[in-house]
Amino acid sequence: MQPERILRRTAAGSQLGALGLLLAVMAAVLGVFATPSLAQTEKPVVTGARVAGDETRTRFVLDMDRQVTPVISGLASPYRLIIDLPEVSFSIPGDAGKAGRGLVADWRFGLFAVGKSRVVMDLKGPVEVDKTFFLPSVDDQPARLVVDLVSASPDAFAAFVEKSRSGRAEQVKKTAPKSDRLTDPKNKEKPLIVLDPGHGGIDNGATGVHGTLEKAIVLEFAKLLKTRLDEGGLYDVRLTRDDDTFVPLSRRVEIGHELEADLFISIHADSVRRGQKFARGATVYTISDKASDQLAEDIAQSENMSDVIAGVELREEPTEVADILIDLARRETRSFSVHFARSLVSELESAVRLINNPHRSAGFRVLKAHDVPSVLVELGYLSNEHDEKLLVSDEWQQRMAGAMTEAVHGFFRPRLARQQGAPSQ
């Protein structure tokens, strides 16, 4: 090889090497500047939480990886304190709030809405927020959100609730924004079915013997049932929630009403205390002014507490409108609800285990739409170990979804036959 060639190649190699080094340095510099901005896109993390003090003064502390701005409000009947945060990741045990202290009976936490997390404290009585402050991270110590509570009079707490009401109402209004899946044009050529997976977000619902969360299992099943109902292309099927987001009970009812749903199915898997060794199997509930039995009353009370658990202000039920047309619509709707419930029980009998007297009734708030046939289905009872094992079984879920799909087919068969110009069976 000629010496000049060697020199040219060596020079070229040196130039390439220098260029590579320059690119590496630039990448490193850009990386240094890019890292903080990327980190800022990640959700803040709650790494610890604790309650200290007594019934005169109580301190609540959240350990966090960075500072956030909380919004604190109160609710009465029962007494609750609400701490709203930007959406955060809770890296703490799921049962962290079961044991309270001082003025705090217990507390819970979780996602409240898209972009919002919430801590709800059940209080032993009226309190006053003495001070709230954020301690920055120092050395190995995390940043800390500190809320100090002191005992107060009912009147003082009522004034605090009233002062914080406007901001809280705006947040609750945003918990279930109208999205495209809820507001796009309704295809009334097909029956419209709303599936309502219970609970969600901060409201976990029941917890199974082995830790199964009701909110997770009912969402999974609702998505499976939607897939089965979508297969034939006969129905327009919507979900009140399709992720781990809290939806107030009143909003669930509104969704069915706004979509002019032809059928509303609320899906649950509750836990019972009374006779829990024996309460197992699927149950179908319809609405009634008086509970059919004690178990139905207990389940309705439990389900109707969803808004309380999530820290939503309970509003008085609207006064019944003295209108004969609305009364007739309500009676007709309840008649259709009972008809579907009986058909559903008939289909489920040959597919899954049912509780004794599987069609029951009680005053479920989520079933109160006067113009939408509505049922609430308890897939099983998470307080029963055998039911919990079935609820997480793919095979059982498929059987349950298949039976419910057949019941829906039977309910809408006369209408579909009329639309197709064929005689109904």
From TrEMBL:
Q: State the superkingdom.
A: Bacteria
Which reactions is this enzyme annotated as catalysing? Hydrolyzes the link between N-acetylmuramoyl residues and L-amino acid residues in certain cell-wall glycopeptides
Q: Where is this region: Disordered?
A: 169-190
Q: Which UniProt keywords apply?
A: Hydrolase
* Start and end residues of each MurNAc-LAA domain: 253-409
Q: What is its EC number?
A: 3.5.1.28
Q: State the SUPFAM superfamilies in the record.
A: Zn-dependent exopeptidases
Does Chaperone count among this protein's keywords? no
Q: Which PANTHER family match?
A: N-ACETYLMURAMOYL-L-ALANINE AMIDASE (PTHR30404), N-ACETYLMURAMOYL-L-ALANINE AMIDASE AMIC (PTHR30404:SF0)
Name used for this protein in its record:
N-acetylmuramoyl-L-alanine amidase
Q: Which organism is it from?
A: Roseibium sediminicola
